[in-house]
């Protein structure tokens, strides 16, 4: 009903629901998935620590498709460009072959 201040460790063996905002000053470690119903914002980098594996077969040469007109609320990975603007990166399979696509957010 009020504030929760933990100076040491805290263990929750069941579910924990937070109806307001939660701020984490240092780091958040999880042994499972993090599901967000909204946006996940990172001031620095959002990265995957596992080493990717190359699929079997030969890679096809593809292009990056740049769309000049943005789609509002386009799902994808939002990255800041060197111009300070936000861009959305997503996979476009409209041609039948997956291509990396980008447009202004």
How does this structure look, described?
This protein is mostly beta strands and 105 residues long. The protein has strands at residues 64-66, 77-80, 86-92, 99-104. Strands 1-4-3-2 form a four-stranded mixed beta sheet, with no helix packed on it. A hairpin with a 6-residue loop joins strand 3 (86-92) and strand 4 (99-104). It is elongated.
Q: Radius of gyration from the CA trace?
A: 19 Å
Structural class: mainly beta
Q: How much of the residues is beta strand, in percent?
A: 15-25%
Q: Could you tell me how far the N terminus lies from the C terminus, measured between alpha carbons in angstroms?
A: 39 Å
Share of helix, binned: under 10%
The residue ranges in which pLDDT falls below 50 over 5 or more consecutive positions are: none
Put simply, the count of helices is 0
Order of helices and strands: EEEE
Write down the overall geometry.
elongated
**Mean of pLDDT:** 85
Largest sheet, if any?
A: 4 strands, mixed
Strand order of the largest sheet: 1-4-3-2
Total strand segments: 4
Q: Descriptors for this entry?
A:
4 strands; mainly beta; 105 residues; 0% helix
Layout of helices and strands:
Blueprint: E1 64-66, E2 77-80, E3 86-92, E4 99-104
Parallel strand pairs: 1-4
Antiparallel strand pairs: 2-3, 3-4
How is this structure best summarized?
It contains no helices and four strands.
């Amino acid at each position: 009903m009020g504030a929760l201040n933990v100076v040491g460790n805290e263990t929750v063996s069941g579910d924990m629901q937070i109806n307001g905002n939660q701020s984490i000053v240092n780091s958040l470690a999880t042994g499972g998935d993090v599901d967000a119903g909204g946006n996940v914002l990172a001031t620095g980098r959002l990265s995957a620590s596992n080493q990717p594996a190359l699929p079997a077969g030969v890679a096809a040469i593809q292009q990056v498709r740049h769309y000049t007109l943005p789609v509002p609320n386009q799902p994808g990975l939002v990255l800041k460009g060197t111009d300070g603007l936000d861009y959305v990166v997503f996979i476009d399979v409209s041609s039948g072959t997956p291509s990396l696509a980008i447009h202004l957010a």
